[in-house]
C-alpha cells in the first residue's frame, strides 16, 4: 500500500497516468488484458504461419491427382519461397516480434496499475469486469481529498476526461468544423470523401505526433502566429512523407487486411449468411458523432443504442423491385434446397457421392442454395411493419445527436436516406473501403490533406486555451461559453457573431449536457456554464 501511495503521490506525467488508468479499466483488469494481448499475438502468429503454408507450401496443381495432404505439401518449402513472398514473410515476422517486445515491456506498468486499483482504489481484479468508471473516478477523487500528501493537481471528472482526451478533443473539433480535406483528388471523385482506420492512424501520426510532445502537451511554438509558415511547411512534409511510405508498403497493408478479414469473418458469415447484409457506422461517422470529453466506452454505449432504430429506418424505404426479385430467388433456392434435403433423407450416402454436375455433389449444392436462400430471405422486410421513417430517424438522432440542418423537414426523403447510408454502411462495404484506401490513402495524404495544413495550424492556435493546473486544451472541450456560446442553442448573453468561433450543430452545447448527464456530481467552474444549466433546468 505505502509503495503504491508513494508512486501515486509522485506521478510526473498525469496525462499518461490517467490514460493508463482508463486503459486498464477498459481492458477489464490485469488478467483480461494479459489474456487478450497474448491471444492477439497468437492470432497474428497463426495468420502469418497459416497464410505462408497456404501460399508457399502447397502444390495446388497436384491436388486433383492425390488424396492426402502429405502428397501435395512441398518439402522444405520455406527455402523455395520467391523473393517477394520471403520479403512479405520477413516484414510480418519483424512486426510480430515488435508486438511481442511491446507486450513484454508493458508488463511492469500493468503490474503497477494492478497495485493501484487493488490497494488504493480497493477494486480487486475479479471486480474489474463489473465496476463502473464513475466508481473508479469517485475513489480517485476521494484519495486526493483524504490524503494531503498526494499530487497537488486539479482533479474533477472534467479534469480527468480532459487529460485522457486532450488530443482526441482536437480531432473531434477538426471533424466538426470540417477543417480536414479528406476528399479523393481524382476526376469524378473530388466530391467524395474517404476516411478509414488506415487513414485515421496516419492522421494521428502526422498531426498529433507533430503538435504534441512526448509528454502529451502541446508544443508552445504552435501558439505563436510568427511560426505559422514554418509549421505549415513542416506539416505538409509529414503528410507527403507518410503518403509515400503508404505507397511503398501498400502491397503489405493490402495483404494483411485481406488475410485478417478472411480469417476473422469467414466462419461468422458461413454460420449466418444473413450477416453479410449487416450495417455499422463508418469511422468518419463515429468522429462526426463523438462529443468533447466523451470517453470511448460512453460513446460506444450511446451509439449502440441507435443501431436497432437505424436498421429499422433503413428497412422502411420502399425497395419493391429488390423485394420482388429477392422473393423469387428465395423461392427457387428454397425449393432446390428442400428437394436436395429430402433426397438425402432417403439415401444418406448421396450427400457426398452423388454428383449433380461434374464434381458438384449434393452437399456442394446444398451449401450454395442454402446460402442464397438465407441472404435473400434477409432482404425481405417484415410485411407487418408500419411506415414511419421520420419517427425512427428522430429516435436515431436522440442517440447520435447528429441532425444536419439540410436534413430538417426531409427525414422521409430518399435523399436523406442516401446520406445516412454513407454514415451507416454495410460492414462489407466498410471493409471494401479499407481495401481501396490502400490506393487512395497515399493520394489523400500527398495531395488533399496538405491543402488543409494552413487551416489546421490556424485552428490549433485559435482554439487553444491555457487552464491552470491542466495545461493547454481545446477551448471547445473546456466548454468555454463566453468564447463559443451559441444563442441558437439556448446560451444567454452569447456575444459571438462570427460562426467561425462556434461549433457546428451545437456540438459544444450538446457535449456539455452529455458530460453532465454522464457525471451528475460534476458542476462547472465558470458562471456561464452554471447559468446555462440553471436555465435549462427552469425550462424543464
TrEMBL record:
Main location: membrane
Keyword Membrane attributed: yes
Source species, domain of life: Eukaryota
Short name of any one Pfam family annotated for the protein: ATG9
Subcellular location as annotated: Cytoplasmic vesicle membrane; Endoplasmic reticulum membrane; Golgi apparatus membrane; Preautophagosomal structure membrane
A GO biological process held by the record: reticulophagy
Keywords: Autophagy, Golgi apparatus, Lipid transport, Membrane, Transmembrane, Transmembrane helix, Transport
Bilayer disposition of the protein: Multi-pass membrane protein
GO cellular component terms, semicolon-separated: autophagosome; cytoplasmic vesicle membrane; endoplasmic reticulum membrane; Golgi membrane; phagophore assembly site membrane
InterPro entries xrefs: Autophagy-rel_prot_9
Membrane spanning residue stretches: 38-61, 81-101, 239-263, 324-346, 358-380
Protein task: Phospholipid scramblase involved in autophagy. Cycles between the preautophagosomal structure/phagophore assembly site (PAS) and the cytoplasmic vesicle pool and supplies membrane for the growing autophagosome. Lipid scramblase activity plays a key role in preautophagosomal structure/phagophore assembly by distributing the phospholipids that arrive through ATG2 from the cytoplasmic to the luminal leaflet of the bilayer, thereby driving autophagosomal membrane expansion.
Family the UniProt entry places it in: Belongs to the ATG9 family.
Protein name in the entry: Autophagy-related protein 9
Amino acid at each position: 500500500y505505502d509503495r503504491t501511495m508513494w508512486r501515486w503521490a509522485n506521478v510526473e506525467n498525469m496525462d499518461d497516468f490517467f490514460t493508463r488508468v482508463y486503459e486498464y479499466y477498459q481492458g477489464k483488469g490485469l488478467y483480461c488484458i494479459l489474456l487478450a494481448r497474448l491471444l492477439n499475438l497468437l492470432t497474428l502468429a497463426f495468420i502469418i504461419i497459416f497464410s505462408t503454408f497456404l501460399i508457399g507450401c502447397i502444390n495446388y496443381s497436384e491436388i486433383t491427382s492425390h488424396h492426402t495432404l502429405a502428397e501435395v505439401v512441398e518439402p522444405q518449402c520455406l527455402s523455395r519461397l520467391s523473393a517477394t513472398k520471403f520479403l512479405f514473410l520477413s516484414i510480418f515476422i519483424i512486426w510480430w516480434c515488435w508486438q511481442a517486445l511491446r507486450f513484454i515491456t508493458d508488463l511492469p506498468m500493468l503490474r503497477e496499475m494492478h497495485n493501484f486499483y487493488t490497494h488504493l482504489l480497493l477494486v480487486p481484479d475479479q471486480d474489474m469486469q463489473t465496476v463502473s468508471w464513475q466508481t473508479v473516478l469517485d475513489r480517485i477523487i476521494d484519495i486526493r481529498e483524504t490524503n494531503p500528501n498526494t499530487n497537488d493537481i486539479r482533479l474533477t471528472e472534467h479534469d480527468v476526461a480532459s487529460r485522457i482526451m486532450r488530443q482526441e478533443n482536437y480531432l473531434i473539433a477538426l471533424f466538426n468544423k470540417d477543417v480536414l480535406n479528406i476528399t479523393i483528388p481524382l476526376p469524378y471523385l473530388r466530391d467524395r470523401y474517404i476516411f478509414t482506420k488506415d487513414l485515421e492512424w496516419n492522421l494521428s501520426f502526422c498531426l498529433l505526433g507533430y503538435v504534441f510532445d512526448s509528454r502529451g502537451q502541446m508544443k508552445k511554438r504552435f501558439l505563436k502566429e510568427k511560426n505559422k509558415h514554418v509549421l505549415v511547411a513542416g506539416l505538409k512534409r509529414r503528410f507527403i512523407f507518410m503518403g509515400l511510405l503508404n505507397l511503398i508498403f501498400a502491397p503489405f497493408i493490402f495483404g494483411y487486411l485481406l488475410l485478417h478479414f478472411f480469417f476473422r469473418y469467414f466462419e461468422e458469415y458461413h454460420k449466418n449468411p444473413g450477416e453479410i447484409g449487416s450495417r455499422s457506422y463508418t469511422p468518419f461517422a463515429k468522429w462526426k458523432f463523438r462529443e468533447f470529453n466523451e470517453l470511448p466506452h460512453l460513446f460506444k454505449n450511446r451509439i449502440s443504442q441507435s443501431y436497432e432504430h437505424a436498421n429499422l429506418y433503413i428497412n422502411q424505404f420502399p425497395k419493391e423491385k429488390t423485394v420482388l426479385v429477392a422473393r423469387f430467388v428465395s423461392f427457387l433456392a428454397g425449393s432446390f434446397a428442400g428437394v436436395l434435403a429430402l433426397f438425402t433423407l432417403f439415401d444418406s450416402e448421396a450427400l457426398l457421392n452423388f454428383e449433380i454436375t461434374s464434381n458438384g455433389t449434393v452437399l456442394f449444392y446444398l451449401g450454395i442454395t442454402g446460402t442464397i436462400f438465407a441472404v435473400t430471405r434477409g432482404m425481405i422486410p417484415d410485411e407487418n411493419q408500419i411506415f414511419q421513417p421520420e419517427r425512427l430517424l428522430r429516435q436515431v438522432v436522440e442517440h447520435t445527436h447528429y441532425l444536419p440542418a439540410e436534413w430538417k423537414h426531409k427525414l422521409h426523403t430518399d435523399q436523406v436516406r442516401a446520406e445516412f447510408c454513407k454514415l451507416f454502411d454495410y460492414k462489407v462495404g466498410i471493409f471494401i473501403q479499407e481495401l481501396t484506401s490502400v490506393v487512395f490513402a497515399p493520394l489523400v495524404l500527398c495531395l488533399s490533406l496538405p491543402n488543409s495544413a494552413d487551416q489546421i495550424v490556424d485552428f490549433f492556435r485559435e482554439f487553444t486555451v491555457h487552464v491552470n493546473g491542466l495545461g493547454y486544451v481545446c477551448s471547445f472541450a473546456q466548454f468555454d461559453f463566453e468564447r463559443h456560446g451559441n444563442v441558437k442553442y439556448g446560451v444567454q448573453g452569447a456575444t459571438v457573431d462570427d460562426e467561425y468561433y462556434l461549433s457546428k450543430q451545437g456540438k459544444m452545447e450538446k457535449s456539455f449536457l452529455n458530460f453532465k448527464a454522464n457525471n451528475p456530481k460534476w458542476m462547472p467552474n465558470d458562471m456561464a456554464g452554471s447559468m446555462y444549466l440553471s436555465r435549462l433546468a427552469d425550462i424543464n
